[in-house]
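input
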Amino acid sequence: MKRFSIVLAALAMMMSTAAFAEDGAAIYKTKCAMCHGAAGEGKSAPAIKGKANVVDVVTKGGLAKAPHAKAIAGVTEDQAKAIATFLK
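output
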């Protein structure tokens, strides 16, 4: 019975992780689309669709102009990866 409970708990954890996987499109729309356009095509900020350095720029910053001179507040590395996947 104890082994069954452990297996059941492990399954529940794996399923909850998959159920709450980051949705790159939703994160992009709330954090990025207002400046970079609905699909990363560019708007008041440059186009970022298909760029290779999206994760680094979002998580570490490094560009000369704000707001990307520093990391974007409130965005984790996993969320940044989800955003980059959405933009591909």
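quick obs: The helical segments are 2-19, 24-31, 33-36, 54-60, 77-87.
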